[in-house]
Amino acid sequence: MSQFNIEEEVEEVVGGEFERTPVPSNKWKGWKSFLGMYAGEHAAGTEFMIGPLFLTAGVSAFDLIVGLLIGNILAVLSWRFLTAEIAVKHRLTLYYQLEKICGKKLVIGYNLANGILFCFLAGAMITVSATAVGVPLDIEMPKLTDTMPNGPTWIIIVVLVGAVISIIAGKGYSTVSKAANWMSPIIVIAFVACGIVALGQLGVKNFSDFWNIWGEGGEPFPGQIKYTFWHVVLWSWFCNAAMHIGMSDLSVFRFAKKPSSGWTTAAGMYVGHYMAWIAAALLYAVYLKSPEAQGFLTNNEAPPVAPGPLAYNAIGFFGIIAVVLAGWTTANPTIYRAGLAFQAIIPKVSTFWVTIIAGTVATIAGIFPAFAMKLLGFVALYGFILAPFGAVIVFEHFFAKRFGIQPFYAELAKVPFNISVLLAWGISFGIFYTISKTFDVFLSFVTLPAWLCCGALYLIFSKLFQKEGFK
């Protein structure tokens, strides 16, 4: 029996997720598996939050509709020609591939940060599902400015929702994929229904009426920033920066038969990050006309964004079910990714149990509404932090031979801490985060420059610091 077959059997016993070996050919999946996952993950809980938050940022119709069209195709191209291309060649998780490049000690810090940030994102989606469960219980919904839970009932709901999501994620990629395939058609139908009902409630009879919902835009709500065309383009491109140019979805596409499976992300972008965002914004536009919302605005306060009540107002209890499922289909793969990050730190613990740990952290985060209510800013921040590490993988993959450096240097040279990676990320992060804070530049505007800078610096430092025998 070959060494690879021995390792394959070990992987099946330990958890079947091939965390430290390439995915074998008998486990590769066709494009349909990814289509369901991406449609489910991106026509999901975040969409119920992001659509309304665009309205609070005062976007115009042109900025929203055309900006999303362009930003989302840029995201799809990033997945197809960067993430899927590299994933199919090596078939390794992001975390193991980074370990080969960075060294075991350096990658521990990255894995910890990555896992925690993914947990926070999953926590926001647990919050979204909880707002739906809370509708029939008539609990007070969190406000846009809330950071702390508003009572014990809210905490109990979040804990129960988080427990179910964590168990599904803990079963592994196949279960996550099956859950997404089952839930995503229901969620898509719900978004379409919500949009159609909201158009009727807004009295929209033609395209001009639809366009005028946003019109020329307006002033942002209290506590929000103004979004322009370029805010929409760059934010929609980089809201998933950690997953595509940041290479997190190497862990997903390593199961793909061909790189062309990367095109399936378009289902998530244009069903979710286009149709669903706009449908959710319409729900919030209906709410803004209510006496309750007008009362908030009169007091110079931002009306709350609670997906559960918004969907319930449009399509009743089907809306509640849809919001619960929508939160699950985002949180499930996100917790799965976080579990893989933690598993890379503690490899002797099974994938199931590290995923349960990740789910527990996400559930605790979900108790606090701040992660969901500040989702636009949080997503921009986590993409900015994590994406430059993906540049290290991308630049090594495409330019290592041309530049005369050794791929997977840390593994071959037995270096536990690759200083080239740390310097490249630290300098690029420091420069562009300082620019963002000093000149009040939105983080999505500097994500691509930071990514390019990190990749270029990695090549330069590797050329300087790699030992001659390994170049």
UniProtKB/TrEMBL annotation:
InterPro entries recorded: CodB
Annotated transmembrane regions: 64-88, 108-133, 153-170, 182-204, 227-246, 267-287, 310-331, 352-373, 379-400, 412-435, 441-461
Chaperone listed as a keyword: no
One Gene Ontology term of the molecular function aspect: cytosine transmembrane transporter activity
Assigned keywords, A-Z: Membrane, Transmembrane, Transmembrane helix
GO CC terms, sorted: plasma membrane
PANTHER family: CYTOSINE PERMEASE, CYTOSINE TRANSPORTER CODB
Protein name from the UniProt record: Purine-cytosine permease
Organism: Flagellimonas allohymeniacidonis
Source taxonomy: Bacteria, Pseudomonadati, Bacteroidota, Flavobacteriia, Flavobacteriales
